[in-house]
Amino acid sequence: MNPAVNQAAHVSEQYWRQKSGLKLKRLLSWTTIVLVLVISWRAAEIRPTAFFEPSAVASVIAFLRGLFPPDLSPSFLRVVGAAALQTLAIAIAGTALSIVIGMPLGMLATPTLWQRGVLVAGERPGASKLLLAGLSRATRALLGLLRAIPDLVWGLLFVVAVGLGSLAGTLALAVSYAGVLGRVYADVFEDVDQQALEALHATGATRTQVFLFAVWPQAAASISAYTLYSFECCVRAASVLGFIGAGGIGYEINISMRLFEYGQVLTLVAMLLGLVAATDAASRFIRRRLRANAPAGSLAHQRVEDEENPRPRRIFTSQVKRRVAPAVLTIVIAAGFYFVGFLDLVSADSGVLTRSARFVAKMFPPELDPVFLRSLMVPLVQTIGISVMGTLIGVFIGAALALPATSTVVFGEDDESGRRFFLKRSARRVVYYSARLVLNILRSIPELIWVLVCVLAVGLGPFAGTLAIGLHTGGVLGKLYAETLEEVPARPIEALRAAGARPLQILLWGVWPQARAMLVSYTVLRWDFNLRVATVLGLVGGGGLGQSIYNNIQLGFYPRVSTLIAIIYILVLVTNWLGDKLRPQRVAL
Amino acid sequence: MIYSLKDVCKSYGTRNGAVRALEGLTFDVQKGERVALLGPSGAGKTTLFRLFNATLRPSSGGLRFDGRDLTVMSGRDLRSTRRRIGTIYQQPHLVPSLSALQNTLCGRLGSWSLIHTVRNIVRPNQSDNKQAIAALESVGLADKQNARADELSGGQQQRLTIARVLMQDPEVILADEPFASLDPALTETVGLLLINLVTNGKRTLVATMHDVELAVRLFPRIIGIRHGHIVFDKPAVRVDHEAIRALYAGEQVTNAARLDSENWPEAAKNESSREPSCAR
């Protein structure tokens, strides 16, 4: 046969093989999706009929009625205030500790300082170089472990180790956010401009000097911004930690819920939302100021805009800032440590240290009995099912609320003036703001509180946990979806509108193709996050692995607890990997 | 003899296999000499500089600095050697968020103890400051001492790196295309500044250049490098048109060129994982 024909035949054969391979792949992935959904549905024990059972309806109505009027008696308000202060103290002390732990770990985990790049390339190959590189990698893995275990599980462990109260909550936050901050710090240190490092390294500076003079000055602005952001997260987490007896607002909510004092619950939840909103606002304020006085290269990009918007005024004059601000910060942090009862830990005779040492010793070796391991299959599948179904419910809620909450969709067309158009515009405004309000409420209330509410409606078990995740996720995803839709590039849409496309057509042909990758990414990331949440819902009756952890801790089977923690760690590693695979490539978040 | 090279090779491991940046370089540089390295982009000049300032190691061959073997040095020894060698980079390599004064002080880091370093962050040492200001004055930047490095113009940044080298007070100055970002007037100023630094005969100057005419005018000795090999090594008075044409003839961008000029840190990262031999 003539070689050209031969080649053509070969190519076409390859084409067909590829095409049938593609078909098979598509078939396989659809089968997998259906299978996952069916198993998740079963595992999460979804029972839509549960909503319509008379008892469920009655208890929900009783709950809603009980919420009003909120309990505003002076004696109760004092309790609320004290609880809020305690939550704040836990968050402050926890953040401070997590910085103290996370900073050295983050430095150690920075690859450019120890593993590769300009600082390492010229070193003599040898044992010390390998040792440092290995230590750096090990630190990175340790940070991953600290992060993978949910803060509530850390909380449970510390409650056993140091006893009920805010000290346990503080330590839980310190450990789990040390993992978060350490990783963030390492990434920031890694991202600084390498040229300056190289230059200082070449003058004979030590690693410490290069870090102090080249890395730190470039990283400082981002470091403080991320630390503040982490403090916001700590306030949220601290208010929930009370559910497992670690003090603060969560503790009070749990008690009032169990006493059916729904009026108190409303006051407490309002306080919680206020506290979170206030810290968010304060932190955003400080962050904006930091950016305004920012060092680092970010200024170079901003200079153009700066001519139109002059820099905001500084909060303090530099003199005051230098003297007073650190003093205030020190006092606040010291007060935080005092309120959470840190003195008990420091004064060694309280026995806290020996007690925790004994507890840690009791956790090893982990229980590996096959019967026990097999018994974990059910809660494991249940946890995954809860996360999948919960995320799916969240997607539906989010998608339904995202469109009316997208300003470019709602206010997109230019209305003319006149009375009729005034009414139309007002109607649009009502739709937009109510959608945003619902999303905000769904998002601001933590999953664990939603579990308590859902338990009232559908009873204890995985279905309540699934609903709780769905409600919270709906709020989060709805906001993210709306923001994504608003940021879709406007020119293609302009062109479609000019071509006479109708709103629905614009949505399908202009907005969706541009936003799709982002939307899928956010959803997959959220599922990844929800899986971690699903492991702790059981602590308040939402099913899954959390239930096993809680039961085994209550019964004192500590070796089993360490097995469960290892399983959670592996589960999180697998989902991280899977999440990276599922996310569309070339999307920067 | 300040530098002595014997059959020096350097190769980087990349995704597409090993790339040889330098192959079998053998030459000496005497104390107090002024040497210009000429050659097309990607010839290996920047890699050679990194070997010279001891931030890279040769893959094979012998490299001595002032009689001491650079290939076996490590730790404190290596750092104190680096302290004696000042580098002026093609891009300014400054810390963008530090002031001009602080960037100048950075030149002195190699001779500070850890305690002195930490103390200097809290309260700068007055005698250090005085020296740094003097260094800034001699490059004409005294009025900019409190400006952030990234607020300076390109020419000012280049002069700031020279101030940093002045502060370091090294025995050897390596300048990697020091005039690349300067206009003709500044080239003259900075060029004279560099030459003045080394005319007392104690300091050695090695510079890479693109401007052949300038190189011949300022440097007594010229070395031509192409594809990691030495093409010629002769006194400036004997460098003729023919030699220059041969050096730059039919130049095209090769893999090594891209590697050498832009992707160095990337290549170095790969290098640590896999170091191929430099067999010829």
Describe the structure.
The complex is a heterodimer of chains A (589) and B (280). Chain A is built from 26 helices and no strands. Chain A has helices spanning 3-43, 54-67, 74-108, 111-114, 118-121, 127-148, 151-162, 166-191, 194-202, 207-241, 249-258, 262-292, 298-306, 318-339, 342-346, 352-362, 370-375, 377-402, 407-410, 419-444, 447-458, 462-486, 491-498, 503-534, 545-555, 558-582. Chain B is of the alpha/beta class and 280 residues long. Chain B has a domain at 88-169: P-loop containing nucleotide triphosphate hydrolases (Rossmann fold), CATH 3.40.50.300. Helix content of chain B is 38%, strand content 23%. A six-stranded mixed β-sheet of chain B has the order 6-7-8-3-9-10, sandwiched between helices. A four-stranded antiparallel β-sheet of chain B has the order 2-1-4-5. Mean pLDDT of chain B is 81; it is low at 252-280. The chains are: A mainly alpha (589), B alpha/beta (280). Chain A binds chain B through residues 115-118, 120-124, 126, 193-196, 198-206, 208-210, 212-214, 217-218, 220-221, 295-297, 299-300, and chain B through 50, 53-57, 72-74, 78-87, 89, 91-98, 102, 106-107, 109-112, 114, 117-118, 121, 148, 150, 161, 164, 168, 265, 268-269, 271-273.
| Shape descriptor of chain B | globular
Low-pLDDT residue intervals, each spanning 5 or more residues of chain B:
252-280
Put simply, the count of helices of chain B is 11
* CATH architecture descriptor of one domain in chain B: 3-Layer(aba) Sandwich
Order of helices and strands of chain A: HHHHHHHHHHHHHHHHHHHHHHHHHH
List the main descriptive attributes of the protein structure presented here.
heterodimer; A: 589 residues; 26 helices; 79% helix; B: 280 residues; alpha/beta; Rossmann fold; 4-stranded antiparallel β-sheet; 10 strands
